[in-house]
Amino acid sequence: MTEHDDTRFASGPRPAPVDAPMLSRAAWMRILPFLAYVGFIFAGDMLERLGYAPDGLRWLYPAKVAVVALLLAVFWRHYAELRHASLSPKGALVAVATGALVLVLWINLDAGWMIVGSPEGYDPRADGRIDWLLAAVRIAGAALVVPVMEELFWRSFLMRWIASPDFQSVDPSQLGLKSFVITSVLFGFEHNLWLAGIVAGLAYGWLYQRQRTLWSPIAAHAVTNGMLGMWVVATGNWSFW
Asked: What are the BP-aspect GO terms (predicted)?
């Protein structure tokens, strides 16, 4: 789907059959990579509670990214919204600028009341020295895998599913305030920096509605995460990871 390809949505959302399941096969293909990602986070937290040192659990991130990337690859041909990786020069510029703006806001919206929990972040150092392989995997995973996985779940699936169970028939430009707000708030509280997360969710959701292609929020998300990773490594602010 390109920025101006609206043939799939010409007739508007279709009502789901009365006996249709709440979540379709297409929905699960967008949910499962996200569940795998969250599952690894939960597993890491449980292992720490059982006494495992955080330093010994750093391998979980490469494993998490690998599993998510594998699931995305398996389902890739079913992601109709990703078949045409095209953005106009103007659209690409807006996405990149939005991603950079989100980064600036992200690292500044960090007052105590804007944080949930006590995030330790991801520290790739060993014996006081950065393990560059781990740092590179972290940045690559955050910039190349996570944006695709999260945008498929939050924007392409959930944002449209709130409007109609037959979410694939929903034109992004027709999404209402309810979908926009609910998705942004839930996206925000997926992160320790909940207010920064809500702002990011609003920005990525706006791009999706405005440009009508999932590649726009994916590009912005990738810029935010990639630049954040480089900033974290350069400054040593590991809690932002």
From this structure: proteolysis
